[in-house]
Amino acid sequence: MAAAHSLGAQLPERLDAGAGAGSGGSVFGWQPRIGVNGSVRALSLGNALLDWHGALARVTAPSLSMVEASTGARLSVGGASSGWWIGGDVIRHSGFRDAVEQPRVETGGWRRIGNVVVTVAAVRRNASLAEMRQITRTSTSVFVFQDSLTGQWDSTRVTRTFDDSTRVSELRRWAETEAGLSWDGRRLSAAVAIGARLASRGVPGGSWGSATMALRLSSPLSLVVGAGTATGGRFALDGEHRFVTLGFRVRPQFAPSMPDARAAPAAATISGLSVGSLGGSKYELSVIAPRARRVEITGDFTNWKPLTLTRAADGRWTATLALSAGTHRLNARIDGGSWIVPPGLTTMSDDFAGEVGLLVIERRAEDATK
Q: Residue 296 belongs to what domain range?
């Protein structure tokens, strides 16, 4: 989607493609823009996740055709309810010769509260900017002449002042901050963000805001609309001051499979789920399914990889897990059927029109006193 860059974390694996228009007070009015961007999981090591993301956008105007491409990686560490990340981007502008942006570095954190995720981020940017400057030059010369009365030679000093112009390139550094709030419902999801650029030497301050809404049309496909503003002050590397976008969001086929948690006939064979503490961070998760031949669970604590439970004599299926305090998302399935939300758990929508169950692990009193 053609929109202001996002510094948020916890981006799901996805591919966005769309078109929009923006206006920065140009005499050419609203300028068309098309673009794509995506995010994919590259590596998962316990609570550490490495994501790769990239974007490509093109802006067309009567006197300008600019292509902006960016790619980067983000390392995030955290649990189900909170965490932080650090990452970087490499950016290239084509058709905009007066500015060359250097790689940027960003960091931030997130906090999940139910279906709402709050993010706060900061980014460090620098660029080499070229501009034409008006300068005043002074020229001094000696004029030699012969006196017509005496016939002798004489001289006088002549000073001239005139205006000139020259191209100057300077490296400028600045910092930006951004806060975001996203909400995910059953069919709708929405996100808002506000940001600001801190004024520094040669770089004016500015602020911006954006809002997007996604309507899930089917399991892999969503319709996305957005609008917002770029920075309020004129600055070479900023795009349109106002923009609107319309596009689609799809789940890439090469992304690891996310469990489909829609209702399934096997749900009738599960009568309950319970979690008991074994001390420390160890917990025993138990599912009651006496007629099942195999019971599996999957969740954010398994990196969404199926985990087979062990059958007990009383018809329970159990597993010992290391769980941190907070909110976890999980699903279960029986005998290789569809993934479902175990009875007794609060149901919420996942990122791709499915459903997951919410499991809350309370912080114990002895941990709170440490």
A: 265-368
